From TrEMBL:
Record's protein name: Lipoprotein
Secretion signal, residue range per the UniProt entry: 1-25
Bias (Low complexity) ranges: 37-50
Domain of life: Bacteria
Lineage: Bacteria, Bacillati, Actinomycetota, Actinomycetes, Kitasatosporales
UniProt region (Disordered), positions on chain: 22-62, 261-283
Keyword tags: Signal
C-alpha cells in the first residue's frame, strides 16, 4: 500500500502543476480542456488556474431545481479522451440522474433515490479496452448537484468517513475493493488549487477472486457541485503504467472542473453545453 500511496501523491503533484501552468500544447494527452467549438484534444492551457484560485461554482450561479440540475449534468461535456488516449464509452454509458450510489451498513454499494438535499447526480462510464496483454481499465465519473454548499460539504465529509467505516467494500456481485486509504487535502501543503475541497482514496480491487489490481478514487467540490471519479486498473501493467492511469484520470477531472467553473463565470450554469476556455489560459 505504501508504494501505491506514493503514486497518488505523484498524481496530486501533477494536478498542482496543471493548476499553475499557462502555455499550450497540441498533444492530445496534454493537460487542458478544448476551447468552445474546437475539435482539438485537451491542451495544457485548459487546466491553467492561478495559485490559490480554485475552480468553483458560486451557489447563486448553480442550478436551483431538479430540472435545472438534470439539464446541467447532462449537458456537461465529459469526453472519453479526457482520461487518456484510447478510452471509449462503456455500455451502459449513463446512470439515472434521479438516483445515486449509497454504501449501506453491510459495506455494499447500491443505487437508490436521491435524498432531499441532492438535485441530480449523473455517472458516466468509460473504458480503456484490453490490448497487448494488458487488461481493460474502467473509469467512471459522477457529477452531483447539491441543493447548497452546506449539503455538498456534508457529502464530502461522509465520503471521507466511508473508508474508515468500510475498508473492504462490495461494488457489485463480483467486484470488491479492499485496503482503502483516504486522505483529505492531498495537494500542496493541504491546499488544492484545483477545487474548493478534495479527497483521494486508494486501494486494491478484486474481480471474481482474481489477482488484485490498483483502485483509485478522487472527489472534488466546487461550491454546491461535487465531481467524483474512480479507476479500476487492468492486469499486465507496470508500476509506471499504473501511475499513468492514475494521473490521467486525475487530469481528466480537472477538465470537468474547468468546464464547471467557466460555465458559472458565464452566468447561468445551466445555459452552456460546451466547456469554454478556462481561467488562466493564454496568460
Amino acid at each position: 500500500m505504501t508504494g501505491w500511496r506514493a503514486v497518488l501523491g505523484a498524481a496530486a503533484g501533477v494536478l498542482l502543476l496543471a493548476g499553475c501552468s499557462s502555455g499550450s500544447s497540441d498533444d492530445p494527452k496534454a493537460e487542458g480542456t478544448p476551447k468552445k467549438g474546437s475539435g482539438a484534444s485537451p491542451s495544457a492551457s485548459a487546466a491553467a488556474s492561478p495559485v490559490n484560485e480554485p475552480y468553483t461554482l458560486a451557489q447563486d450561479r448553480a442550478p436551483r431545481t431538479p430540472a435545472e440540475a438534470v439539464r446541467f449534468v447532462r449537458e456537461l461535456t465529459v469526453r472519453a479522451d479526457y482520461f487518456g488516449t484510447g478510452y471509449r464509452k462503456r455500455d451502459p454509458f449513463e446512470s439515472d440522474p434521479a438516483e445515486w450510489a449509497v454504501l449501506d451498513e453491510d459495506c455494499l454499494w447500491r443505487r437508490e433515490g436521491l435524498p432531499g438535499t441532492v438535485l441530480a447526480s449523473l455517472t458516466r462510464m468509460y473504458e480503456l479496452p484490453a490490448k497487448g496483454g494488458k487488461g481493460p481499465v474502467y473509469v467512471s465519473l459522477t457529477v452531483t448537484v447539491h441543493q447548497d454548499v452546506v449539503s455538498a460539504r456534508r457529502d464530502m465529509a461522509g465520503s471521507l468517513e466511508e473508508a474508515l467505516r468500510c475498508p473492504v467494500q462490495q461494488l457489485n456481485a463480483s467486484d470488491r475493493v479492499r485496503g482503502l486509504y483516504s486522505r483529505a487535502d492531498a495537494f500542496a501543503e493541504g491546499r488544492t488549487v484545483v477545487s474548493d475541497d478534495d479527497l483521494t482514496e486508494s486501494g486494491d480491487w478484486v474481480a471474481d477472486g482474481a489477482k488484485a489490481h490498483p483502485f483509485d478514487w478522487y472527489k472534488f467540490r466546487m461550491g454546491p457541485v461535487t465531481v467524483a471519479a474512480t479507476a479500476r486498473h487492468g492486469s499486465g501493467r507496470t508500476e509506471t503504467e499504473d501511475s499513468t492511469v492514475t494521473t490521467d484520470m486525475a487530469k481528466g477531472m480537472t477538465f470537468v472542473a474547468a468546464s464547471i467553473d467557466s460555465r458559472g463565470k458565464a452566468g447561468d450554469a445551466s445555459a452552456t453545453a460546451e466547456p469554454t476556455e478556462p481561467k488562466g489560459a493564454g496568460q
